[in-house]
Specification:
- The chain is an alpha+beta fold.
- The protein has one domain (38-231).
- Helix content is 31%, strand content 12%.
- The chain has helices at 13-34, 36-66, 122-125, 137-140, 208-211, 213-219; strands spanning 86-89, 150-154, 162-166, 182-185, 191-194, 226-231.
- Strands 1-2-3-6-4-5 form a 6-stranded antiparallel sheet.
Length: 232
Amino acid sequence: MKNKINKLKGFTLVELLIVIALISILSVAVLATINPIEQSNKAKDSTVQNDAAEVMNSYERYYANAQAYPWQLYGSPTKPSVEDAVLLRSDSQGFGLCDEGDYNTSASVATTCSVNSSTPGELIKSDELKTAFVGKDEFRTVATNDENGLWLYKQAGSGGGIYVCYVPKAKSNRNPTNNQLFCLIGGANPTRVAVGSGSCTSPSTTSNAWADPTTAIASGDAAEAGIFKCVP
């Protein structure tokens, strides 16, 4: 009886190419479904929203101790009162992270100061926020990358609500159908209006509102400023 010799049969070149092609197609399909850039932007938005909530809570703690808000200590020609509506970017003196120069309360956007300066703002000096907080992108790069900034908005009136807003990066968070987005309009009496109310309409993807919110806010064009998510 002859021994049977089993010979192992390998893959042919054609078969290997077919397998590689199938793996490539599946990889592209998975990446298209997951969209890593969108997932990264969602994670960034979540981090910034948590930071915004922390800043907002620090204002309430500061007011409980000082019976005033940080922005009430500064201003030209007059200091704002607790009754005034206020709109400040995160590198503005009255925001509470830095303390240089002064700002004009009648301007659309407050004069900025260096968040990397050695002069801490009221929230830092009062220990309501840690000094390391100014190292975050919302403050460190806001002067050169405006869409990274946080924005404080306080409604007019002694009981006016306080909101800390930011420009969402994820496309899903920029969809007004699924999210509550707002227009922030600057000037002597700044306002905050929900997208879809009055003249506040959803901006196009090419709008200044996404890439240059300071210009959009200062222009007073609500249709160009409906970009912000706010806490709370």
